[in-house]
Structure formats: C-alpha cells, structure tokens
Amino acid sequence: MTDASQTDASPAAPPAASVEPAAAAKPADALYLVDGSGFIFRAFHAIPPLTRSDGTPVNAVMGFTNMLMKLLADHHAEAVAVIFDSKRLTFRNDFYPDYKAHRPEPPEELKPQFGIIREAVEAFCVPSIELEGFEADDLIATYARLAREQGRPVTIVSSDKDLMQLVGDGVGMLDPMKNKTIGVEEVFEKFGVTPDKVVDVQALAGDPIDNVPGVPGIGVKTAAQLIGEYGDLEALLERAGEIKQPKRRQALIDNAELARVSKRLVKLDDHVEVPTPLEDLKVREPDHEKLLGFLRQQGFRSIITRVENEIRADGRLVDGASAPQPTASTGEAATGEAPALSPTANPRAQFDGKGSYELVQTAEALDRWIAAAYEAGTLAVDTETDSLTACSCKLVGISMAVEQGAACYIPVGHVGPDGAKAEGSLDLVPSDAPKQLPVDEVVAKLKPLLEDPTVLKIGHNLKFDIQVFGSHGIRLAPIDDTMLLSYVLETGLHGHGMDELAKLHCGYTPITYDQVTGTGKSRVTFDRVALDKATEYAAEDADVTLRLHHALKPRLVPERMITLYETIERPLIPVVADMEAEGILVDRAVLSDLSRDLGARLAELETEVHRLAGHPFNVGSPKQLGEVLFAEMGLAGGKKGKTGAYSTDSATLEPLAEQGHDIVQKVLDWRQLAKLKSTYTDSLQQQIDQKTGRVHTSFALAITGTGRLSSTDPNLQNIPIRTEEGRKIRRAFIAKPGHVLLSVDYSQIELRLVAEMAGIEALKLAFREGIDIHAMTASQVFGVPLDQMTGEIRRKAKAINFGIIYGISGFGLGRQLGISAGEANAFIKTYLERFSELAAFMDRTKEFCRRNGYVTTLFGRRCHIQGIAEKNPARRQFAERQAINAPIQGTAADIIKRAMIRIPPALADAGLKGRMLLQVHDELVLEVPEAEAAKTADLVRQTMEAAASLGVPLVAEAGTGHSWAEAH
After folding, report:
1. pTM for the structure as a whole
2. For residue range 190-203, what is the model confidence (pLDDT) as tens digits?
3. CATH of 751-856 given 1.20.200.10, 2.30.29.30, 1.10.150.20, 2.30.40.10
4. Where are the compositionally biased (Low complexity) regions (predicted)?
C-alpha cells in the first residue's frame, strides 16, 4: 500500500489541455452538477490503496480532490454542486422493496472516506447536497430542469447510464475519467434510442445491479428495436400480442406490470423539493487557511504545493505548518516527494540561473555543470536530436539537471535560419550561426562523467539516449529510467510518457515538442529551433525527469517492486539498445520479388471477385464492398452503421466465408495479401537503413500490460509464420557473409506455466517425462488411449490447450474446430472437470483481481486489469479473460527478459562473437559466425532453459540458417 504523499495526483483526471477550449466556450451561468457517488467510486478504484499518517485510508479522498480541483480549474466553473446519495432506502423502495437490495456493502476501506470527502467539498467552498429519501440522480434531474427553465446550460459530470435520460435541450454530460462529452449521439450509440426513450429501453432490459426486474429474455438491443418499432413502452405492451416471436410475445404479456414497475424505478424524479435553492449553487472563494489545513491533515503534499502556488500568484499565501508525514500501511516510513514543478532559478550561486534554465555556450560553464554533477552524485540527462531514428539521427544538444530547478542545455548541433552552423573555433563562425561548443569537445568533456560508476545517470526512455551517446563512443552507466520506474509500479493504469507522468506526479504540464518545433508543414527539426526556446524545453525535460525520479524511485521498496526493476527491467535497457543498433540484414531483391508476386496475385483475386460480383468495383472500399455483398447479392448478416454503410469487418465476413460464399473468401484472401504487401514487402524496402543495409526495429519497453516487448517501426513480431506468404517474407531476413542466423525459442512455455501456476499435477508430470502434451491431454479429455491417438483428436486437444490460456469461448473454439458451439462447450467443460486445478486457478485469479485490481506474475510484476468490476457483462468477461492470461503471458515475458540479460555476458565469457538481433515473444534471433553456430546454439539454449527454476522443465529449441525462414 502506498503512502498518500507519493501518489498525490489522480490517474482519473483528464488532461487539462484537451478540455480548455470547451471550457472557454461555456457561458458564465453554466451549471455543473457533479455525481458525487460516481466521483467517489471511480476515484477509489482508480488509485492504489494509500493511507494518511494515522492509518486512515485516503485514496478515494485524493482522487476525488484532484478531480474536483480539475473541474473547477479547467472549466472556470462558477456554478457547481456536488450531489451525494443520502441513504440506500429511497421512495422507490416503498413500492418495490427489492430495489438495489442485492447491492453489496461498500468496501471497508472506503467507508471511512465518505465523511472525509464531504469535508473536502466543504473545504473548497463548493455546495454539497443530499436529501433523505431520494437518490442523487433525482436531485440532479431536478436541478437540471430548474436551470433549463431559466435558460441556463447544464453539464452533468458523470458517466452513469441512468443519467443519460436527461441529455438534450441544453443538458449534456461529461465523463471526467475519459474527458469525453456525452450528447444525444453518444446516448443513441449506447442505447439505440434517443435520450427521451432511454427509460423505456431500461424498463424492458432491466438492471441486475440495481435489481430492476425488466422483462426476462429482453436485452438492451432487443428493447431498443422494440421501442423503435412501437414508439414507447405503453404502446408496445398494448400491442404485445402482435409480436411474431412466440417466446418474446409471451414474455411481454406475462411481465407487462413488471415492465411498468421497472419504468417507475428507472425514471428520475425531476420535481424534488430541493434543500438548497438553485441560485445558491455557486462556488465561493475558499478560506485558504482552512483548505490548507484540511489538505495537510490528509498529507496531500503535491496538492498543497499546487494550492500554495496559486495563492502565491494572487499574493494571498497563508503560512502553515508543514504537512504530516503519511505512512504506508505496511509500516514503511514515508519518503519525500518533489514539489509542484516550476522552472525556478538555480539554487546554487555559481550557476547564476536568475530565474531561468542555463544555456551553456562556453567550456567554463560546462565545466561548472560537470563539477556540480560529480558533487551531487546523480544527474538527469536527455539528448535532443534531429530525428527519432536512433541509429541515424544527429545529436543536436544535451540537457542536464543536478537538482530540482537546477538544469542546463548544451547545444552542439543547431543551425541558423540559413543553415549556418558553428564549426571549430567560436571566433570564426558565420554571423548567423548559433553560438555553441563543438560537439567533439562536449563529448570529450562529458564522457568521463557519463561513464563514471559513482554518478547515477537518470533519464526517461534512456534506451534512445544510450544509442545516441553510443554513436559518439559513450557507454552510459550506471542508469535509472523513470519511464520503467513508472511501468513496474503502475503497469496497465496509464501511459508512461514523460508529459503524462509530469501531470500525474508533479501536477505540471511541460512544454510540448509541438510548441517548440511547430506542427504540419511549418514544423522544423530541432536543430533549427532558436536556442532560447530549445533551452527552455530541453532543460525542463531534464528537470522533470529528476523530479519524477524523486517521486517514483522511493516507492520501489514499500511496493515490493525493487527486484523486478533492478534485476529485469533496468538491466534489459542496454541489451535492447544494442539489439536495435545492430539491426538485421534484409535482402531488398527478395522483398522486391515478393511485392511483384503479391501484386500479380492481388490483381488475379480482384478480377475473380469482379467476375463473381458481375461488375468491377473497388475491393478495398468497405462501402462499395458492402453494397455489392448485401444490397446487390443479398447475403445474410448485413448491418449498417451510423454512417449508413454496411459493416464489412472480419467478424462480419468470416462467418459468410465459412458458409461457402466464394466471393467473400476471395475478398478475405485479397485483404490478407494486400496487408502483407503494404505492411511488409513494400514498406520494409523503405525502412532499410542506407548505410547498414539493415532494418532497425524499435522495441517499446513500457507499452504492453503484461511486460512483453513490443516491436514498432517496423513491427517484426507480427509477420505471420504459419502461412506460406509469411515464411516467404522471413526469407528476406538474412545473415551477413560468413554468418548464419540462429533462432532459439521456448517450447510450449505458456502451457508449462499453466501447469506450474495452476498446480496441474498430470500436466506437470507429462512435461517432466517428455510426453506429447497434446496427445496426453486428448487422452485425458476424450478418453482415447495414447496408442490409439489420431491426428484429428490431438488437433482438438491442442486447440483447447492453447485456447484455455486465452479464455476461448465455446463459440470461438467451435469456429476453430468446425463444430457447434454446444459441442465445443462440452469439450471445455470436460477439460476443466478433468483438470480441476485449472478451474480453481482461474476462479482464484479472477477473485484476486476483483479485490486488488491487478494480477501478479511469478516474478512479482503487477498487471493492472481495467474493467474487472465493470457492470457491463461483456466488458467484465473480457477483463476476466485478461486477468487469467496476464500472469501466464507476463511470467513468460519475465523469463525471456531474464534470458536476454544473461546471454550477452555468457557469449563474451565464452569468447563467442554472436550478437542478439531480435526478440519475437518466445523466440530470440542471433547472428553468429558459421564456425561458432553449434557452440553458440548450445550456450543460448542452455541459458534460456536456466532463466527460471520451475516445477516443470523449460525447453528451448534451436535452429540455424542463412535466412530467418531457414533458422525457424
């Protein structure tokens, strides 16, 4: 559990920049009605557990406070009210006692926060309203009506579907988590009807969460269809006998009164006698001493700093005692955090910052900064370049920060408006060239510092900077990376870009790249940015990075992430940087031939599709394709979207192809080949580096929710390997003369991890004894002796084995095996009965995730799962499938990362010259001298198999060849 002072910004808060234009357009008399209960629960589930110094939970209080502050600041709101539910029983229980009867009690750690949140609203001098016997939604409906009668626009700050019936006629909604406005179109998209018909749809569909009965067997989609056809609920019930479907007709006749009761339950009462007059819903200037006192009591130091900065700006700072030191519930002492960020003057007199960051243009100034870095022992560093291609970009400048507010920028590659650049002596530069030190002199001075083992170098996405410095002969070490600190602490909760983290942890919005380089046609490369603007931007980046380090690094120990970070994520950075710099050789001629071949085959398929359609059309146009298939040919399953065009996505077309519609199958074949051609055979030729002849992919280290690396620009992890076309593409990736490519991959690692993590003894035994796992599974599930096993039965078992890991449904498995969903469900049921440990593991994992919001890998990585508590069954079930798969896939990712870290030193110790080039999920690709191929394969295989100690053996299989296709 985290202490309150360390996460003093809510991930629920949307970026301010994206809402300011809308806020500016709001009239002064606009009324904002905040769904207080919605704020509370979303804040509670969005922020990890944390407590203040006396042990009281305050994560929901913190999130609520941040969201309320953001609303007030972003929308310049003057008329605001926070509406709370009073008690669970309302007037609805008088005529339907079971209303909301099944709702669980709030979590114990949330209960004490309700009162504190009401104190927060009072401290900010915002009206707080509740009324016994009525729900907050009824008060919101009433105030919205009263405001509209006065011609005032209303924004309901909530995403609650029950409030969507109020949208329209000057009433809109704002989802504060997604920063998304909800209008008539969004309501129609959700319910299939306009807002005035929402209560009719809800009355038919019911709501199991609130125990609204509805009509059994009718969901939202069917309800919307019926209301759209008959106009309203009463008309539908009166004409229920006309319904053609017997089961639906009888359900409506039998449950007509339940539907009417349901409508009374879901329809909001907009004529409540409100406890506070509409005209009193105004935000008043808060008592700053009282407000700061409240915030100090909670230990919200970042919020305190933001409030104090605003008060200072108005000359009204109230001095007060420092905030109490909150503690983690584990008993760990809390650590300090960075104050809210502003580019202040350098606190050290010798820097002479004078209220701004320093532009370093002389050797003496650079020497002072280097000396300060040695003295501090830590140095935040960042590079600016003329492109984002690490292997070929030009170094433009370097920024450094030695303490908060103490940062500088050292330009080395800027050019003037006419392209003039300082070269050699500064006394001999062209008149329009920017004054800067020669790059070789700067590199020579910085190299000892950047390689010194006693000075910690801190960066954000340091992989890129390691490659840039590496091209100048500097091996950056030792290092910390704030992007990866954030990633190991909060995987799956938010992005890990510096700007997002600055807002989240420092309450500050940094200068953006677009602000200094421009956008669109007017954008310039960074080497043409004026030095004053470049300094402000670049030095701020280093300063922010240092502040993020102060905020994030101390959390590793109390949150038990230190081992994951220091033994897996941090040491992997230079390994991946070297892989990217090495790149993989590509045979352009092979790709060119493939492009021509694919082009010819696409033309043939297009001709055949035109023949089957009876006329030519653009096969790549979804609109034209939809008209041909559904309007002209009359194929079943055609559905139009909001634009009026038929959907032609794969989910629509694949069932039609399975039904034997030849034209649809050929369209799908055409699409697959077109994607391969555009994404790989054409695009890869453009991405070959002209100097090296290699493709240098970029591996994103902090993108996935499970810890897996993600390949981009180009994506080499998605080349299909089970199709002939995919294998042909892999033939284009080759080894340099005298070398071969070595491919080593784990055999069935995820199935092995399922056996290990679920404790399935039968599978563990099979893996230990080297038995064919799919044949063994088939024998167990289908009751077929191993000596009578057929390929078809084994194929079914294999599909179930791998499908179970990804939460496959009966429908999905049935489609894969060509059997009915019912038969497939029976297979899955039998499988889970036979391997009961797996069913227990799945239930245990889902329950853990529901309680904690995350699941863990065997190495302690936390994979946060969004939507595990969703009311919507489809979204919740998707999250549950993620929860089951994430610890398995995440553990596999951790294991191969451990292997990747160990392989380079193992090769060096053995005197072998092989180099790692690629990681593709469970596979590593190396380039090795032919004479060393066998020895290197053995060493890499052994290293991968020893990367983790499990109750089942890890098995790695190796292959070599002159191309990737031959090696794998």
Report:
1. 0.64
2. 898 999 999 999 99
3. 1.10.150.20
4. 326-340
